[in-house]
Specification:
303 residues, six-stranded mixed sheet
């Protein structure tokens, strides 16, 4: 064989497929800076048997398998179990989306060593999303998952002791009872599953909430020392901010309101989740925010 993959992009693509087994053809765009002719490069890799197409996915072909083994790349034999395939494909899609992200690191479930009684195959999580240094144990609920599966996810989160932040990507938020997803953790984010919302995770911790709050309250409120709200004047203003639907935050403020029936709260959130929060907190004052107007583009980290 006289041909070898040219450049880091092709090598990275082969390494990725060796690890994740499958790559949707639409996700190959995440591996090439130039969008002009990368499809031709993939076609060429298929012609010389580094890759082959299986319906809408790319997998390693015989020469590709030999190549990654010779170079000691992590290689997982392709799982052909039809029942397990959608999970693998989704994990691959998530990993491809964030492969070159500077903000998000994704660790798939099959790379997590779980020494508890319950093995990784028995657990329902699909991996860990580390967003701006904060780790979120991540779950995925699809339209094909029934209520029994949702209950198994709830049970899975209940028995988790290491990770205190959770993301649940769900096909339809209306399927979820928010009160079932409160565990006394730091955060449980219920997120309607779409490429747009997954992309928004990039700036989950890059919203300039201080600027938003100051614009509305003229610097008369402060970061809260309470666990049920984000800002307060320590008198009458109790303010919550939401990027996504956070069931733990909702539960904490519900408890506060039960003990303080004469208090009101102000909530800042995007339009897409107002409906769900309002169902739980109907008496709050709502301000709708377009979060994209307040993204901090660059974050400088100093040692």
């Amino acid at each position: 064989m006289n041909y070898f993959p040219s450049g880091n992009e092709e090598i990275t693509l082969l390494k990725f497929i060796a690890k994740f087994q499958y790559l949707n053809t639409n996700d190959t765009k995440y591996f090439f800076k130039s969008k002009a002719y990368y499809k031709k490069r993939i076609t060429h890799l298929a012609e010389i048997k580094y890759l082959k197409r299986v319906k809408y996915d790319l997998v390693l072909d015989e020469v590709g398998i030999s190549y990654v083994k010779q170079n000691n790349f992590q290689y997982n034999t392709r799982n052909r179990n039809k029942k397990y395939l959608p999970r693998l494909q989704y994990i691959s899609h998530l990993a491809a989306m964030f492969y070159n992200s500077k903000t998000i690191k994704y660790t798939p479930s099959f790379s997590i060593k779980d020494k508890e009684i319950f093995t990784t195959t028995a657990r329902k999580y699909i991996g860990i999303l580390e967003i701006s240094g904060i780790e979120y144990l991540t779950y995925h609920i699809t339209s094909k998952h029934d209520n029994k599966y949702i209950l198994s996810v709830i049970y899975d989160i209940q028995k988790e002791h290491k990770y205190r932040n959770t993301i649940v990507l769900v096909n339809n938020l209306n399927r979820i009872n928010i009160n079932d997803f409160t565990f006394g953790n730091n955060q449980v984010l219920l997120i309607e599953d779409s490429d747009i919302n997954r992309e928004k995770l990039e700036y989950l911790h890059r919203i300039d909430w201080q600027k938003i709050i100051n614009n509305y309250y003229n610097n008369k409120v402060f970061l809260a020392g309470y666990n049920f709200c984000d800002y307060t004047d320590y008198k009458t203003k109790f303010i919550l901010t939401f990027s996504f639907l956070d069931t733990e935050k909702i539960n904490r403020v519900k408890y506060f309101l039960r003990e303080n029936k004469n208090k009101t709260i102000d909530i800042f959130c995007p339009r897409e989740i107002e409906y769900y929060i309002r169902k739980e907190l109907p008496n709050a004052n709502y301000t709708i925010i377009d979060l994209e107007d307040y993204i901090v583009k660059e974050i400088n980290i100093y040692d």
